[in-house]
Amino acid sequence: MEFERCAIPDVVICMPKVFGDDRGYFMETFRQDELESFLGFRLNFCQDNESKSSFGVLRGLHYQMPPYTQTKLVRVTEGKVLDIAVDIRKGSPHFGESVAVELSAENKKQLFVPRGFAHGFVVLSETATFAYKCDNYYMPEYDRGILFNDEALKIDWKISESEMKLSEKDSEQPLLKDAELFDFNNNLYE
How far is 84 from 60, CA to CA, in rounded Å? Predict the structure, then answer.
C-alpha cells in the first residue's frame, strides 16, 4: 500500500498495490499495520458500511460529535464518485478548506478521513457502490452535518445542483458558521 498526504495533510490517499493478469486481479484493501505506521497513531476500525447510489446522489456532509467522532476509510467498489473531506476543526490552519478526490472501481484509491472532518460524496457514474470503515459506531443522536452548497466552503461538486439528488436531511443541514464544530486543540484520538 502506498500513501499520499493531501493539501490538508491529515487527509490521506491510500493506493493499494494491484496484482493483475488475464485472470483478473488481487489487492489488499486494508493493512492496519502499514496505515498506522504511516499515520503515527493507532486505529481501531469497528464498523463497515456500504451504500449503492445512482448518478447525482449526494450524501453529506456528515460527521459525529464526541464521544462518537469517527475516522473513515472510504472506497468505491463499483462506479465513480467525487469524495469530499472538509476540515471543521476551529483553530486549524485549514479550517473550512476541503479535499476532493475522485474514487472509482478503476483507480482503486481510498481516502482516509480523520476525526474532525465532515465527509460527503456525489456519484459521477450511472451507479456507484461506496464502502467504508469507521472507528466508532454510528450513533444518530451525535450525528451532525453541514449544508453541501455552503458558499463559505467553495466546493466544486463537478455536477450542477439541478442534477443532484439529496435526502431531506442533507438539504436542510446548517451552514458551517452555524454548525456544531470541533476544537483543533483537542486531540480527537485520545
Answer: 9
What are the tens digits of pLDDT across the range 148-158? 999 999 999 99
Catalytic residue of the set 25, 63, 94, 132: 132
Distance of alpha carbon 12 from alpha carbon 29, whole angstroms: 15
Q: What is the pLDDT of residues 105-162, one digit of tens each?
A: 999 999 999 999 999 999 999 999 999 999 999 999 999 999 999 999 999 999 999 9
Say which DSSP state 173 is in: P
CA 33/CA 93 separation, integer angstroms: 29
Phi, psi angles (nearest 5°) of residue 11:
-95, 130
Is the overall model pTM greater than 0.85, yes or no?
A: yes
- Mark whether 132 is an active-site residue: yes
Residue 47 labelled as part of a binding site: yes
In 10 A of CB 34, how many CB atoms? 14
SS3 of 62, please? strand
Does 119 carry a binding-site annotation? Answer: yes
* CATH number belonging to domain 44-183: 2.60.120.10
